[in-house]
Amino acid sequence: MSEVKKKKIVWTTIKIPKDILPLIKSTAQKEGKAYWIILTEAINQYRMSKKFPQGSKDIIPDDKKAWYITKLGTSIGILKENPTEQNLAKTLKTLNQIETRLGVNVEPLRRVCIEYVKRKDTELKIQLNGVLKQTIIEIMNL
């Protein structure tokens, strides 16, 4: 079994205009997500809008998107059912493929998967479902 590299989250602070914080805070509360996840999703959405502007000819075919969504959903389902290091390694491999082949930032999903294998609780499972849903939406929007 290959050893999975676990990334330790290193926290920092950023300066933002004071009137932006309530927007981040209300969005995080409404979505039930951490601030950093809200900011990551916003950055991903911004990058996708720049990478594939409306009417772009470089859109990824629907069958390719469907394949990766199916593969990702299956992989996460297996991980949730049986959260082992071996299943985590397979899930991380799928996430790496999506990241390199489609250009989708899967870091939030990667982190939650790693944390879920360490600590299998309902709150993390709910967070895993939410981040998975966001990743699928990003793939669909390619």
Question: How would you describe the overall organization of this protein?
Answer:
It is a single chain. This protein is mainly alpha-helical. The longest helix has 20 residues, at about 60-80. It is about 70% helix and about 0% strand. Helix 3 packs antiparallel against helix 6, helix 4 (about 85-100) runs antiparallel to helix 5 (about 105-120) and helix 5 (about 105-120) runs antiparallel to helix 6. It has a domain at about 60-140. The radius of gyration is 16 Å and the shape is globular. It has helices at about 20-30, 35-50, 60-80, 85-100, 105-120, 120-140. The chain is built from six helices and no strands. About 20% of the residues are buried.
Structure summary, number of beta strands = 0
Distance between the termini: 34 Å
Question: Major β-sheet, in short?
Answer: none
Oligomerization category of the chains in this entry: single chain
Overall SS class? mainly alpha
Beta-strand residue fraction: under 5%
What is the H-and-E element order?
Answer: HHHHHH
Low-confidence regions: none
Shape: globular
Continuous helix count = 6
Radius of gyration: 16 Å
Mean pLDDT, to the nearest integer, reads: 87
User: Helical content, roughly?
Assistant: 55-70%
